[in-house]
Amino acid sequence: MVDIDDDLDSEAFGITDRIVADVLNAVMQGDAAAIDALLDPLHPADIAHLIEQIDSRERRDLLTLWQGGIDGDILSELDENLREEIIQQLRPDELATALRDLDSDDVVDLVEYLGEDQQEAVLDALDASDRVVVEQALSYPEESAGRHMQSELVRAPEHWTVGDAIDYLRADVVLPDQFYHIILVDPRLKAVGYVTLGRILSNARATPLRDLTEETFRTFHVAQGVEEVAQAINHYHLITAPVVDDDGRVVGVITIDDAMAFLEEEAEEDILRLAGVGEGSLSDNVFETTKQRFPWLAVNLLTAILASLVISLFEETIAGLVALAVLMPIVASMGGNAGTQSLTVAVRALATRDLTPSNVWRVIRREALVGMLNGLAFAAVMGVVGTIWFDAPMLGVVIAAAMVVNLLVAGLAGIGVPVVMDRFGIDPALASGTFVTTVTDVVGFFAFLGLASVMLL
Fold first, then answer.
1. How many CA atoms lie less than 13 Å away from 169 in the CB half-sphere?
2. Does the model's pTM come out above 0.70?
3. Nearest CA to 149 among 259, 253, 3, 248?
4. Any stretches that span the bilayer, and where are they (predicted)?
């Protein structure tokens, strides 16, 4: 029986299992007309999602039959790991058509991660003027505002009135497909403010544009980090962020939709890195996925060996009281989970700049107190459990003390490790999890077995 709620949810999302099945059936039958009928009404994001769901052979057959169907909007929505595969299958004329209506920032986003041959193929497909703009953007550092800005914008002299602006917009000029502000510039083309289209349309023609400028106006340098710009857009509720060169002249803009997309990608990347899976996606093949995950599994193996070496120091203690082997994993597991909780909060706070040098010590003290209080609470529980389970009150005291020590250290490590890595310019999401787990395992085993050897034997 079909769940109506599930079916409605999938239809609201845009791609249903039925659509995917119908497209694949049309591909198997070689029915190009049916493919056109199924895909043409769909949003580019939905088509990209469908392409990502099917395997490489099905994608190749689909593109062979659906000639001319792929456009720039679909390419820009695709997972970047798939773009090169798709672009390789497009004829030069198809590629040129696909890129024709894209904004410059979308073209740069398509090009920057491609191989050299495919990058050249995309650039060759552009008009000469568009190619110059894209190549200029590619000359900026990878994570800079200049790399991610779009060059399409609307400028106006600062002395214009509302009527001048309206007449200009209605004249035979090339305008961006979507824009929210007119940027006012002085005679040297330096940005001095901007006016929203809504304020232009709601004021008299004689009103000077200078009288309608937004108080939130601020500019960003082409070399400034795009993450910093995106966070500023989010923080100050900006719609458009003008990007300026060394002379203060406006050369592009970053809009709120691009900023939010970038922040979403950064958040997704942090989550994947915390799990040690790099930037993998479901569209990656087995070899690529294995290669991405192997390095951190290897690091994890080394840290596990380190924890095992700590255990080996207490072989005689464990042999003298087997109950220790039963309870050891509990101490380590609780510490690992507590450390991961602090770590996740810290990495996200660093990414959003909520955790700064001005409040880091307050946050460290908080996490230490949280760890200690949780340690005391679970120490009481495990003290009772250890006493009743093995009829050994002192064993309950040992595991209770070890629990307090490990959860306190877990809180400190969870906040301290990513802060230290960030201070040294290392992405805290990249390896913090492995190091925090190592600390909690080593400290947990050492505290538990060390106390046991002193108090029980």
1. 22
2. no
3. 253
4. 294-314, 320-347, 368-390, 396-421, 433-456
